[in-house]
Amino acid sequence: EATDGGTEVVTITAARDTGSFIRATGGDVAVGDTVLPAGVLLGASQIGLLAALGVREVSVRPRPRVLVCSTGSELTDDPVPGSGQIRDSNSHMLAAAVEDAGAVAIRRLWVADDVPTFLRTLDAEVDAGVDLILTSGGVSAGAYEVVKDALGPRGVEFTKVGMQPGMPQGSGRYADTAVVCLPGNPVSSLVSFEVFVRPALRASYGHPQPFRRIVRAALTEPVTSPAGKRQFRRGRLDLAAGTVEPWGPPGSGFLGWLAGADCLIDLPADLTDRDAGDDVDVWDLTV
Prior knowledge:
The chain has a 6-stranded mixed beta sheet with strand order 4-1-5-9-8-6. Strands 10-13-12-14-16 form a 5-stranded mixed β-barrel. It is 23% helix and 26% strand. By secondary structure, the protein is of the alpha/beta class. The chain has helices spanning 44-52, 90-100, 115-128, 146-151, 186-204, 255-260; strands at 65-70, 75-76, 86-87, 104-109, 132-136, 157-160, 163-164, 168-174, 177-182, 213-219, 223-224, 230-238, 243-246, 263-267, 273-274, 279-284. The relative contact order is 0.11. The longest helix has 19 residues, at 186-204. The protein is extended. It folds into 2 domains: 65-204, MoaB/Mog-like domain (Molybdenum Cofactor Biosythetic Enzyme, Chain A, 3-Layer(aba) Sandwich); 213-284, MoeA, C-terminal, domain IV (Beta-clip, Beta Barrel). It has 6 helices and 16 strands. The mean pLDDT is 91.
């Protein structure tokens, strides 16, 4: 008897078939097999497979580099805002959304509604190398719309779209770099990112599913939306029950309700009233 609790002698009483308990060459990947098709996302298992095959380098599309900035003299990163200040939430929120979309976020905060300062800082970041400039705020019809004032004369187009939230938008190029200018209200900014920016970012590096999954679900309560505008309402989706619950009011400042939602209810512009039980398109934000 072995002192360590094991067995000193093993007796084999029957022969096993030839090849039993042996992994055959090519049993996992055979010569000539396509290991990873073009366009596949490289995750943990794909990296593991490449390492197992001794592949040290592959050609990939780089993650887009996105400059993210909020504008407004009233913004601060100080936990205790001073008089006339508000905490900057948009740049943090959009930087997280950019990273979640698979790109690289370069977060900047400008605290002055001053066109020359804005352009000088923008030029420095563009010279450092970015693929997209993503701004929030400064695009509406106020007296100090710094983004609109700075980029409008330089070829970026600003317009209003039939959408709620997120009516004022801007897009174009600055110094040969793509620009998207989102509205400043937090909910408008993030919903606009979901509608316009996230799919484009994912498509730019070949993501096989650039768009959010859209499912049909029945409303748990009636809703109304403005005529002529495509409305995106916050919601909570119950896939098992096939229902969606409208979550909070539709206003652009209710960020707390957005944080508690897991989907967007897509209400088309040609219908203003939906009853409980009506089926609607729902953007699933969890996948």
